């Protein structure tokens, strides 16, 4: 099983051991843990993920991969994209160098997206989508709790307006989907993240969506963060799916294979 979206830097040491008992790996994403006074805060956040988190998780047996990006709630006044590009390029270089050891850490750009749909947010989102395409990396796109339907619509319009390659869209994940937003994304080439978390989907909500739409292009995650979370959201949902008669191939797809293929993981 793969938890395709967590924020490991918000979780205590002990959580990793519990996750490691069920998961083959997890993907931790940059988010908004601090007030973004300047790009230096973003740099410190990226460094913490790369230099602390991977090791902290590994020590407890949890394999961790990383996505880096500027979250819509973390845009500093001096935003620039060179630093993000440098971190991503360095990660890609490391991945290539260690390809024989099956060792990589950077697997995507994220999480990016829109929260309030301001002009600034849209510009930062567009720039990062272009970087994801340029570096051939998957992009993980946040959708907010408030105005989810309208904002998801705007997100899809922004993506469309950029005229990205089909392959870029196939490696894009629209996160925190609900039964209201799945129909909007289902007709595109993009993937849909189902987040099982107390304020988002319950395991049964995820079961219902998968029963209706099947497993293709869906990924399960817990978005474990400083908000109320269920670090075992993915294994618990898999259990509910088994109990409720979801086909084992579909379960395998949404809890492992889709994430493995999109993020090109060797797990
Ligand atoms: Zn998140």
UniProtKB/TrEMBL annotation:
Record's keyword terms, sorted: Hydrolase, Metal-binding
Keyword Coiled coil attached: no
MF terms in GO: hydrolase activity, acting on ester bonds; metal ion binding
UniProt similarity note: Belongs to the metallo-dependent hydrolases superfamily.
Protein name: TatD-related deoxyribonuclease
Record lineage: Archaea, Methanobacteriati, Methanobacteriota, Methanomada group, Methanococci
């Amino acid at each position: 099983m793969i938890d395709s979206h967590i924020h490991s830097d918000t979780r205590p040491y002990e959580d990793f051991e519990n996750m490691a008992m069920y998961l083959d790996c997890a993907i931790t994403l940059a988010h908004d843990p601090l007030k973004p006074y300047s790009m230096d805060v973003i740099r410190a956040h990226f460094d913490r993920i790369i230099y602390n988190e991977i090791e902290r998780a590994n020590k407890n047996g949890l394999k961790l991969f990383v996505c880096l990006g500027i979250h819509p709630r973390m845009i500093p006044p001096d935003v620039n994209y060179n630093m993000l590009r440098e971190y991503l390029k360095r990660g890609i270089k490391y991945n290539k160098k260690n390809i024989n050891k099956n060792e990589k850490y950077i697997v995507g750009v994220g999480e990016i997206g829109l929260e309030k749909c301001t002009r600034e947010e849209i510009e930062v989102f567009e720039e990062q989508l272009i970087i994801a395409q340029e570096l051939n990396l998957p992009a993980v796109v946040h959708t907010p709790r408030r105005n989810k339907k309208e904002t998801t619509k705007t997100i899809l319009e922004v993506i469309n307006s950029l005229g990205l390659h089909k392959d870029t869209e196939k490696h894009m994940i629209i996160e925190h989907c609900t039964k209201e937003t799945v129909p909007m994304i289902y007709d595109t080439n993009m993937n849909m993240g189902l987040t099982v978390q107390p304020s988002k989907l319950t395991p049964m909500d995820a079961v219902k969506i998968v029963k209706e739409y099947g497993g293709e292009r869906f990924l399960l995650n817990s978005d474990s963060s400083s908000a109320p979370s269920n670090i075992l959201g993915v294994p618990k949902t898999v259990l509910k799916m088994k109990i409720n008669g979801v086909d084992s191939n579909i379960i395998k797809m949404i809890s492992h294979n889709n994430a493995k293929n999109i993020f090109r993981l060797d797990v």
